[in-house]
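ok here's General secretion pathway protein N, seq below lol
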Amino acid sequence: MNAAAQRRLTPPLAILAALLGLLLLALLAGLGRGVRWDPPRAAAAPPDAHAARPLPPAPPLQQFAEVWTRPLFNPSRRPVARAAAGNGNLGELQLTGIILTPQLRMALLRGRDGTEVRVREGAALPDGSSTLVEVRPRGAVFEGAGGRVEMELPAGAPIDAPSRAGGPVPQPPPAGGAAAPPPAELVRPVGRPVPMRVVAGGDSPDREERPRQDEAATQAARVQQLKALIEKRRAAQAAGNHQGDR
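and the structure came out like this:
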């Protein structure tokens, strides 16, 4: 640092030193000794709880029943009660099978007493408690007084159709290795023309009855085919479990 720079810094440093000296003299003379804390204020008394106005009574819960009976964000405006994953029970009924064809959509149910119930899409249960509104590949949706209940097939339940629509239904293999007895009846191939007998001299009454009987027989044949497949899978699983226990 040269002499010119020192001369430029000397006046500011002298002024700063003088100010600090004056502050020190003021502190030694008693500057700031008269500062005191104010006395603490008395706490305000809490309000009397008995003097507070009582709250109005709550409205009844049923007044808001429309909130859950007609959900705003549900397109159908109906509550949806979904069953737990893997649960296929509706009261005492359990979902055991699904039938999905272009002409037939049906759910197969079984009760605890072994009663089998077949419900077509759009039809109600025998007791009228619920209606089958939708059939899905792995489940069915029933609608009742308590809303909609989604039932799912148990793990491993078969839903596949037979490989050939016109072929006979394969029978489950016997558990003990014995030869299986011949089937009691064969399923009529689907779509096979049924001969109609025409009475000469007038219209035959069979012309009106035959198409209805043919449609009913076709649906019954499909139901029997899928039912046989379900029984086959069950028998195969039972045989596998029996061999595993040995």
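fwiw Helices lie at 3-28, 65-69, 206-245. kinda neat tbh
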